[in-house]
Predict the structure.
Amino acid sequence: VFSAANVPQAPEDPLFGLMRAYRQDPFAKKVDLGIGAYRDDHAKPWILPVVRKADEILRSDPELNHEYLPIAGLPQYTGAAQKLILGADSPAIHDGRVATFQTISGTGAVHLGALFLAKFHPLRPAPTVYLSDPTWANHNQIFTNVGLQIAKYPYFSAQTKGLDIDGLLSTLLAAPAGSIIVLHACAHNPTGVDPTHDQWKQIATVIRERGHFPFFDCAYQGFASGDLARDAWAIRYFVSQGFETCVAQSFAKNFGLYGERAGAFHWISAPDAAATSQVTTGNIASQLAILQRSEISNPPAYGSRIASIVLNDPQLFAEWEEDLRTMSGRIAEMRLGLRQRLEARILADSSNIINGSQANWAHITSQIGMFSFTGLSESQVKVLREKWHIYMTKNGRISMAGINSHNIDYVAEAIDSVIR
Ligand code: PLP
């Protein structure tokens, strides 16, 4: 019999513990580098100007009501989300090979895809899901919660602070045929390291050779580089190569709609004879609808309405692209600024560097998106927190969004002091 008394206490999510400690710290110059959301130059949340506009348009609509959305979501939204991720001229969309469901942001999209694969994958047991090492911590529990086995593929090289492409390829080659491979479409979380186009092609070749299934998680389109097409390149490449694939898409970061939970799950069938792939896609959509119904019934309306207004209006869309460039541009500036400050300090006093590999900070600018894997050790992270009141996860990941023109000198001084 079930007894609530037997339920053990779960460990605290390390990120939430970090956030709590930061909030409780009374030190005036404290810095939050754990934050997973964009902050402006004053460390404040930023409502995108185009989102403010869309909000006004939405509120002035006399037809607006609070009815349920369809199970698959707002059609103008899911249609625009498809075009955004695959490209407006995508043959997959044209051929009717894409099934799209509005989800509870990116998390809900990953979950819906995981649940679908757990339930409908023809192999029993279902194939193992390969996650990058490291990855967004939530991937582990989302896939295991639906009963799938998980394994790791090497991703980050501690030596180069870049991609371990050899380790990645050899592990995918050795993985059982037909494995599920989760790929971060851009701005890899937590490392900020993305494959080059050439490396993506090598990854695609191995996935093809082994009959693996590529599962894309795209939480940072446009936020990473400021260019929506560039950040979707890997997904579009795989689709152009005729892979059957799926994509979890989030509008949390690129619209700053974190709490509104606007996302989408796309299933892209392989390009068989057009009629066959349309039937396949329709069947998949019908099953996704049942899963969606049992999980959330209908997705939330507000965030999707905001995104839909912007995505479907060329003028607002252009303004959104400008906002994306503002966010990604500020982050790129902070990357460069931090690197320059650290290198200048190291150059000015090269007498007592403790760890030679920490003399090079080029990875700060070659990594992309919200996060950077600094290479700081757990003990250095601890000193940064206890002595300098600078908070980051213990793997040395920093959120570039937490750095601004007011604290960048302080952060550089602190990091410089702990690497000596
Ligand atoms: N996937 C990755 C890799 C992420 O970094 C995030 C957010 O941090 C998500 C998915 C999902 O975020 P959300 O559910 O807020 O869209």
